[in-house]
Design brief:
The complex is a heterodimer of chains A (247) and B (351). Chain A is an alpha/beta fold and 247 residues long. Chain A has a single domain (24-242), classed as Thiamin diphosphate (ThDP)-binding fold, Pyr/PP domains (Rossmann fold, 3-Layer(aba) Sandwich), CATH 3.40.50.970. Chain A has 10 helices and 9 strands. In chain A, helix 2 (56-59) links the parallel strand 1 (44-48) and strand 2 (63-66). In chain A, helix 1 (24-38) packs across helix 8 and helix 4 (94-100) crosses helix 5 (102-110). By secondary structure, chain B is of the alpha/beta class. Chain B has 2 domains: 5-186 and 225-234, Thiamin diphosphate (ThDP)-binding fold, Pyr/PP domains (Rossmann fold, 3-Layer(aba) Sandwich); 240-350, Rossmann fold (3-Layer(aba) Sandwich). Helix content of chain B is 40%, strand content 20%. Chain B has helices at residues 9-19, 35-43, 57-69, 80-95, 122-126, 144-161, 171-175, 217-235, 255-270, 288-297, 311-318, 340-350, and strands at 5-8, 24-27, 50-53, 74-78, 100-106, 137-139, 164-170, 177-180, 207-208, 239-242, 249-252, 275-280, 282-284, 300-305, 324-329. In chain B, the strands form 3 sheets. In chain B, strands 3-2-4-5-7-6-13 form a 7-stranded mixed β-sheet, sandwiched between helices. Chain B has a 5-stranded mixed β-sheet with strand order 10-12-11-14-15, with helices on both faces. In chain B, strands 1-8 form a two-stranded antiparallel sheet. The longest helix of chain B is centred in the middle third of the chain and has 19 residues, at 217-235. The interface between A and B is large, with 35 and 38 residues.
């Protein structure tokens, strides 16, 4: 019998701690599939961030460095400069990358570090219990915006994929979603492109993945999944914002 | 004939880093240490190394964390306000058991303070400046030659004990020029870095981390770190004892202040006062035993610092029970560096 579907070898055969309906598991799988496809598992160094994604080393069968909150792109810079032949990626959430780590991501991108940054945007701080994130939508209620995010007081959500695309050092920037099979297939394509940039030594690649957080949104998994495709994708448009080599 | 150079203390640090095999430097400009990044920005690219002027001291220390995690020798340098920013990363490096050298050409504070010589970062350096109850190796050079030699030692101790090491100096030793013998890197018995992340290949996954959530894991990890600190105290204390054998009064001082104290002691000796200098070279581990043994004989100690009293606490914890410990210090700032005559007067008063 022919095997047509299997676990990527870069993923460990373990259960995750992610909540039902969370998209981290799907995004982990897409990352692992891309690692497998380029055959780089053995020379990959992953940089974990602080938040729900901190247990990267528990799920990926690769070498991992754990970075302080927000500093993953700076840590990855040090790793990559010391080991230019390794494949280096960070995996960061929205609080980590778009709030406390804004300086680090902007400057790593602007230097054109030859790394890949995976940015998971679920519009909230998941690990700490659903506080307002820099990507929380206007009007969205969280545990620290109980009356809804107020644009005049809290600002509007940051569109990181578009923002980083402005920088000369960025070779590739895209936003994907994994809320339905069509989007997952497209996301897989974009992950491959993002990884190819680094495999070919062509510069900084950034991929933002919209993700559901049913637990902290106070929704069931189906409603949360739907929110990604409607409310979130309305504001955070899916697409490729930079693709310097037309991959 | 041994080659002798005439260089600044900060340049000596940069030269020693290169001699020690460091090829990766990450930093951010701040007075009075900018000669270090300037020197390395010129020299490292010629050696196939990497120099990054980062966006902040926070980014610099995290680049150091990343590079060190791969097993290479790497360094950052800054001055007090910048070192405060690095404390987060230093805590993570201590927790992740990562080597790495941090140079603090400290300046006066608090806040922006000033750029003058200062010893007010002693507590921050030796007591664990960030969160979590850790220590790092702290070395205190008092000459350009020691800036060179102790920088090389910092790399070795960091690698041997798998922890960050700091060279703590100030503008007196950093900015002045003195003759330097650029010694070769000393032979050292260094452990394999089999913990470094370099890509797992066909082997087992390696993880560099400071998060330990399992029942009992973090306690065990902290006991492991504690044992390293005890081992450092037992094996690595370094100090200079100058004219202490017959002394009736010991002056204790480190770094720049020890130079001034040494002049004052020579002046006191000319007056017939039997005074000696005990100068800690390792501030962590603090040479407790040296102070205990010296004060078994000499019952009076005068601690001199360029602050209002920090190392004096460690001296008091170390001396014999019947020893008297006095303190003289001035907060750092323009014009507060004590003169030899001023310290001589203190010696006379406490003799």
């Amino acid at each position: 019998m022919q095997q047509v579907f299997k676990r990527p070898i870069s993923l460990k055969d373990v259960q995750t701690h992610f909540c039902p309906g969370c998209h981290h598991g799907t995004i982990h799988r897409l990352v692992a599939e891309a690692l497998d496809e380029f055959g780089v598992q053995g020379r990959t160094i992953g940089v974990a961030s602080v938040g729900c994604s901190v247990f990267l080393y528990g799920y990926f069968d690769i070498d991992v460095v754990e970075a302080p909150h927000g500093r993953a792109s700076a840590v990855a810079t040090g790793v990559k400069r010391a080991r230019p032949d390794n494949f280096v990626f960070t995996y960061q959430g929205d609080g980590d990358l778009a709030a406390i780590g804004t300086a680090e991501i902007i400057h790593a991108a602007n230097r054109g570090e030859d790394i890949t940054v995976i940015f998971v945007n679920n519009t909230t701080y998941g690990m700490t219990g659903g506080q307002m994130a820099p990507t929380t939508l206007v009007g969205q209620k969280t545990s620290t915006s109980p009356y809804g995010r107020n644009q005049h007081k809290d600002g509007a959500p940051i569109r990181m994929a578009e923002l980083l695309a402005q920088l000369e050092g960025v070779a590739f920037s895209a936003r994907v979603a994994v809320n339905n099979p069509k989007n997952i297939i497209d996301a897989k394509r974009q992950f491959k492109k993002a990884f190819r940039y680094q495999v070919e030594g062509k510069g900084f690649s950034f991929i933002e993945a919209l993700s559901a957080c049913p637990t902290n949104w106070g929704m069931n998994a189906i409603a949360a999944n739907e929110r990604v495709g409607s409310e979130m994708a309305d504001y955070f448009k899916l697409g490729v914002f930079k693709n310097t080599d037309n991959m | 004939m041994t080659k002798r150079l005439f260089v600044k203390g900060n340049e000596a640090v940069a030269m020693a880093a290169i001699e020690a095999g460091c090829r990766y430097y990450f930093g951010y400009p701040i007075t009075p240490q900018s000669d270090i990044p300037e020197y390395l920005s010129r020299e490292l690219p010629r050696l196939n190394g990497e120099f990054i002027q980062a966006e902040s001291e926070i980014a610099s220390i995290n680049m150091l964390l990343g590079a060190s995690a791969t097993g290479v020798r790497a360094m950052t340098s800054s001055s007090s306000p910048g070192i405060s920013l690095k404390q987060e990363g230093i805590s993570y490096m201590a927790g992740s058991e990562l080597p790495g050298v941090i140079v603090n050409i400290s300046r006066s504070g608090p806040g922006l303070g000033g750029i003058d010589a200062s010893q007010s970062d002693y507590f921050q350096a030796v007591k664990g400046g960030g969160h979590g109850g850790y220590h790092i190796v702290v070395l205190a050079p008092s000459s350009v030659q020691e800036m060179y030699d102790l920088t090389m030692l910092a790399f070795d101790l960091a690698d041997i004990y798998r922890m960050p090491a700091m060279v703590l100096a100030d503008s007196v030793v950093g900015q002045m020029k003195e003759p330097l013998v650029p010694n070769k890197r000393p032979a050292a018995d260094l452990p394999d870095k089999d913990w470094a992340v370099r890509g797992k290949g066909d082997g087992e996954q390696r993880v560099v981390k400071s998060l330990f959530l399992g029942d009992g894991e973090l306690e065990a990890h902290n006991w492991k770190l504690y044992r390293k600190y005890q081992e450092l105290k037992a094996r690595e204390c370094r100090w200079e004892a100058c004219q202490t054998d017959d002394a009736d009064l010991l002056v204790a001082a480190f770094g720049s202040t020890a130079r001034i104290a040494k002049t004052a002691i020579m002046m006191a000796r000319e007056e017939g006062l039997k005074v000696g200098l005990l100068r800690p070279i390792t501030l962590f581990p603090f040479p407790e035993r040296a102070f205990l043994e010296a004060t078994e004989r000499t019952k009076k100690v005068l601690v001199v610092e360029l602050n209002t009293g920090q190392m004096v606490e460690d001296v008091r914890l170390s001396v014999a029970r019947d020893a008297e410990v006095a303190f003289y210090g001035r907060p750092p700032g323009a014009g507060s560096l004590p003169t030899p005559e001023e310290l001589l007067e203190q010696i006379r008063q406490h003799y």
